[in-house]
Each structure stands twice: as C-alpha cells, then as structure tokens.
User: What shape does this take?
Amino acid sequence: MTRTNIADLALLGGSPWFSEPLHVGRPNVGDREAFLERVNGILERNWLTNQGPLVREFERRVAEKLKIKHCIAMCNGTVALEIAIRALGLTGEVILPSFTFIATAHALQWQGITPVFCDIDPVTFNIDPGRVESLVTPRTTGLLGVHLYGRPCDVCALSDIATRRHLRLFFDASHAFGASHGGKTIGSFGECEVFSFHATKCFNTLEGGAVVTNDDDLAEKVRLMKNFGFSGLDNVIHIGTNGKMNEVSAAMGLTNLEHLDRFIAANRRNYRCYREGLEGIPGLSLISRDGEENSNYHYVVAKVEATEFGLNRDLLVALLRAENVMARRYFHPGCHRMEPYRSLYPHAGLQLAATEALCDRILVLPTGPSVSPEDIVAICALIRYAAEHPQRVSAHCSDGPSPI
Assistant: This one.
C-alpha cells in the first residue's frame, strides 16, 4: 500500500497503515518449549531463587560468552548499576552523559552522588572525552561511560583520563550485549560493566541485569552486596540489599542465549532494509555501524534535520505513531531536562549544546524478529511520503496530537 492522498493519513482520520502496533523493542523469545521445560524443572526442584542452579549456569555461560571472569546476575539493570556504584566506593560527583536513559543518572542521585552531565560527541553520540577533564573537581570520584545504542564509547580516552586523574571507571553497557570494541567483547572494559536484560533488550531474561568484571575483589564485594551481605548462613559481613536474579529469569536467559545469533541476524537484516529504504532522503540519516566490530543492531536510529527533511522530528513521530509505527525519541529530552535534575541544575543545558541538538532530532524505529522486511518497506514508504510532501503534511497535521 502507498499513500496517494493526504486524507489517507491516519493522523487525519484514515485507517492506520498497520492493524497492530509495531514497537521499537518487542520481547524476543527463543524456544518456548525449551523455556517451559526449564520452568518445569524449577518447579520440580522447588528452588525459585537464592542462587539456584539455573542462575549459576546463567552466570557461567554469560561469562564464557563475554570472555570475562565474573558475571553476577541481578534482578534488573538498575539495581546492578546501583550495586556497582556502591561496590566501587563512589562518593561526591560522577561524570556521565546526559544523553542516556534516566536510570543511569538516577542510580547515582538515589545514593546521594551528584551526576555531573557531560556533553556528547556529535558524531558518535557518546560521551565526549575532550570535555570530560574540564568537569573534574576535587569531589569527582568516577567516570561512567555509556555504550549508547550498543556503539562503544571511547574507552581508551576515558581510561587515560581515569588513570591520570585517579578516578574509578565503569560502563553502562545496557545496549551493548554481544557488541565489541577493538575486537574485544564489551563487558571487559573499565573496572566493571553493567548490563540490562530487560524484556525489550535484544537479549532478555524477562527482567534482569548483571555486573561483569575481571576484578576478583570487586566481584566478591558485588556478590555480597546483592545478597544482603551474607557470607554463609547467619553471617553478614557487609552492607547489602536484595539484588538477586530468580530462577525463572535465568531460565529465560539461558533459552534466549541459545537463540541470540538468530535475534541479531534479524536485527542486522532489518538494519540493512532500513538503510536501503531510506537512502537518499534529504535530511534523514541512519547512524552507522562499524562493519569490523560485532554489533547486536538492536536500535535502528535515524537523525532528522528539519530544514532539509521539511518536517521536524516530533511531527514525523506523530505521523508514524498514528499509523501504529511506535517510533520513539530515545533519549529526549535528556536527563538534565528531567526531574530532579532540571530543578537541581537549571543551567546544565548551557554546557550541553550537542546533547540538546540531538535530543530534538533523534528517532528510533521498530526492529527485531517480529518486524518483517515487508513491514520496513511500508515504514520507509511512509517516511519517504512525508519527506516528499512536507508542506501538505505540515499544513494538515500542525494541530495534530503531540508524540508520546
């Protein structure tokens, strides 16, 4: 189906192009029977949590895949990040990008640590090492890099700064499971890296996360902290909380780990379909992937330049969502423009020009095994129609609903 009349647009009352919503991150599920078999085993053993056999197997297999010494599985990625922060002994201030999911900043603020927002590189969208050092103060204790959209940040430059300034260095690798940098698997950089295995990630455990590290002492501390500080029965030797992964989540993780290559292959196929379908549209570009590195291709990210495209990003999102293409503005408007940060640091945006510019331009499109090449052809046709008829679309849609 192609659009031949402006009245066909769902935003103006026509029928949506897709009968069911196409989401950016619909849960990937491997072999359902294999998962249910594992769940039946859990019920037969009556061992639901507290470092059961599937959690231990999951940790071992993830560590092997990432080629690191320790994987400590957690109930979710946010708790994993919070425990990593405490285990590293961070205090005062920690430098991180504002262009990330809000949990990255919240994990610091929640523990009384001031997140100091650094601007991003306008090409890579990752934290700009050239701007980090000017933000270091006597209160700075750490650097938190984010591998945004699964594209590794400049770990070498950040490592150099951390070494010279005696700072702890760790990474939020929530988007980057299965990715590599310099031929080395993400998970082995800094003092530790933190993964999210949320249901919408390329690799999920229903809900879950992990801290991974090659540091034996840090791994021991993290293991204590995720289980209330217990060392054996009735022996608490450290402050801690309840961050444990349950057995059912580990069952899903083990099942999906066996199908990860299939998930990534579908993402790669979809990325190439989008590249072909959107090629040559003025003012719209997809972020690139390094063909020499591994990538999970989990996010298909476009940048919209309103002057060249003819419409701003928000109007394009509204048009797509009306057609049941649930495009997202990850990560609009930036952590610094969300609470409590916009009240605590009202002038932070003055130092974040590249971040603010990108927040108004970025567009994330649906992908994953549940999105077919035919779906992508239709999505690209919608976007191309909008680009070819910007004045007509804008004139009819300027009073349409704001995108979510």
